[in-house]
Amino acid sequence: MIDQRTSGFLSEFLDTPNRDPAVLDRFLLQGPDGGRRGAKPHVKVAFFDFWPEFDPSANFFVEILSARFEVSVVENDSDLAIVSVFGTRHREARTARSMFFTGENVRPPLDSVDMSVSFDRIDDPRHFRLPLYVMHAYDHLREGAAPYFCHSVLPPVPPTREEAAERKFCAFLYKNPNCARRNDFFHMLSTRRHVESVGWLLNNTGSVVKMGWLPKIRVFSRYRFAFAFENASHPGYLTEKILDAFQAGAVPLYWGDPGVLRDVAAGSFIDVSRYSSDEEAIDAILAVDDDYGAYRRYRSTPPFLGTEDFHFDAYRLAEWIESRL
What we know:
Elements (H helix, E strand, L loop, with lengths): L3 H11 L6 H10 L11 E7 L11 H6 L4 E4 L4 E6 L11 E7 L13 E4 L8 E3 L2 H12 L17 H6 L1 E5 L7 H13 L2 E3 L15 H8 L2 E7 L11 H8 L2 E5 L14 E2 L6 H12 L2 H9 L14 H10 L1
Parallel strand pairs: 1-2, 1-3, 3-4, 4-5, 5-6, 7-8, 7-9, 9-10, 10-11
Helix pairs in contact: 7-8
């Protein structure tokens, strides 16, 4: 459930004319008091086994912890080691406390770390649920793909009828071939209306979008719909894919987390698994595409407001980590 501090601040902020998103960003990343007042305790943080593009010195964890600590990023001998799943170097970690993190479909090893952060819905004081899309909202900000961390929380601005007509139908952007569910739906939808595959997988455009969130979101912004199928279906497994489509102003076509409506508002996206068949789902997609009023309703619905779960108040994670150090 949404933290009462966040709920109160959001309500007041959204009712304020000429609101400044930077104010909401500070609240969501630093907390109601703007972080710790006065001298901050020093904490040494080390990162192990993250993905190759991960920057240990500038990332989501360093950002939120810096509101409460003087953070030094070290290679080892740390106060807190944050470990992930892309390797085994974490076995060499010398640290006072360890925290597991993953956005992959991997269960957290609760009994071998002091705390864990993942998308899993686990009722355990050692675990904090953080869907991957929250971290990627921060990455979108850092890369310039969105102007604010809170960008996806703000009420969306729907396109005019003319703007919607100028966009192409639907984009498909993947490199991983190992999801038959996703590939099959692409082929089925493509037989009814042309879908452009702009990535390495099933490419039909003759060019491939560069790696990175900014190129991806820029390309998605040319389409009315975008595929946001996960690599697998698992309760709570909700990655950046749906966020990327929202940030680009496209309606996501989603498949994955069976409980996605706990995180993402109904009416802001099309969940193909809610239909009795893929044919019925495709009929529904095309009906929305042919009806500007229906499309506008999807594009007017704030995806992350009014839901059962809200995770953009990153300061809560910082508070939780601090309480366990």
